[in-house]
Structure formats: structure tokens, C-alpha cells
Amino acid sequence: MATPTYDSDVKLYNLTFDANDPPRLATFWSVVLERPIREGANEYFATIARTATAPAMLFIPRVPGTKLAKNRLDIDLDCHDIGDPRDRLEGLGATFMHEKNEFGLHWMTFQDPEGNEFCVAALG
User: What pTM does this model have?
Assistant: First the structure.
């Protein structure tokens, strides 16, 4: 079977977070991912720059309303050993939610300091 080719100018550029405190949430993700926050971060705008393999992350003031349910989209992080990052993430302000081993995959789910869910797994 031939691999399909795509000729599109559309590319994933940014993951945008509505945040109560954009610089604080950007700092959390900057340390987790070991990627710097771009200059000019302030109470209205903070960005972690894109890389050759990862989109930028943009943090802006939260829209009105409170988060009431599970995220419709969450970030999945890859690590070498699933047991390694838990203490580090909790030390940075993440909240451990649960650990699962289903569908041939072992992962842990956390919330960032503002309640956004994300998962960590040893994917490869």
C-alpha cells in the first residue's frame, strides 16, 4: 500500500491555553518541557516558542466562566520511564489524578496548576 502524500500549507503552530495567570502557567510548562518562555511575557500574554518538532504554547487571560468538566483536548507527554516524572511534576505544582494500564498502554494523568489535564506515558 502506498503512503499518501500531503501538499498542504496548514501546519499546527500553537497550543493556546486560557489562563487565570498566564505567566505562572507558562512558567510551569516551560520548566516541565525544558523550553524557555519568550521575552515580553506579561499578565496578558506569555509564549513558549515553537521548536522544529513542537508547536508554540500561548497563554492568554481566561475567558469568562469556570472550567466545569474534563478537557476536550489534553497534552500527552512521552518519557523514558513512567515512574520518573511523578515527583518532579508534583514538585512543580501538578496534581496527580490517577494511573492506568489499559489498551496496552501505561500512563499517569495529572492536572497542571490551573486544572488542565495532561498525561505522561512511556511511549517509545
Answer: 0.84
